[in-house]
Amino acid sequence: MLVEKPQPKKPAEFPQDPQNNNVRYWLIKSEPLSRIDPKTGKDVKFPLSELQKLEYEQWDGVRNHEAKNNMLNMSKGDILLFYHSNAPVPGIVGEAKVHNEAHPDSTQFNAKSNYYDPKSTKESPRWWCVDVSFVRRFRSKVSLEQLRSNEKLKDMTLVKRGRLSVTPVRKEEYYEVLKMEESKEINDDIDCVIDQKYIKRIE
């Protein structure tokens, strides 16, 4: 059964980039290191290297309405900064993109899932998610500490509201992050193993 995607409660906070195919920029968080969920007994880790092996991945399990709204505002092709959280040195390690626009998060209907929502139905789903695909790894991690130390990024949503798992990124912030990355020596400090040939953007 196809359910029509709802209109976001709030429109996208930042405008599209007319100089880059009218994409918007976002940041998504994922845990790169093993952590066993006490409810399911499953490992929740999903480093960038796992995404690199796949055609795309459903970005499910988001149970925050603001983060859900951000995904409802995403368009196919939008660029995602991939952030490793819950690591000794959290930070941005690469880029992904929106492979498919928002659709119902299938985990909300699975009673065995940690993300099951008994109030949600297939006719009226409460939770939506996008599919994401790998674009590239960074030369080196751009750490949260480095982001916080950059005056040009003082208003970045990640810096101001660190707990939100899906956040909008201004065009100027995105390009500033890329400048920070480009200034770094190549270093495999990204919490996972991805060949350095994937530093360059793969179209």
From TrEMBL:
Q: Which UniProt keywords apply?
A: Nucleus, Phosphoprotein
By its UniProt entry, which SUPFAM superfamilies does this protein fall under?
A: PUA domain-like
**Where does this polypeptide localize?**
Nucleus
Cross-referenced CDD domains, in alphabetical order? Answer: EVE
Q: Where is this region: Disordered?
A: 1-21
Q: Which residues form a coiled coil?
A: none
UniProt KW Phosphoprotein keyword: yes
The reply to whether Zinc figures as a keyword in the UniProt entry is no
Q: Which GO terms describe its cellular component?
A: nucleus
Q: What is this protein called?
A: Thymocyte nuclear protein 1
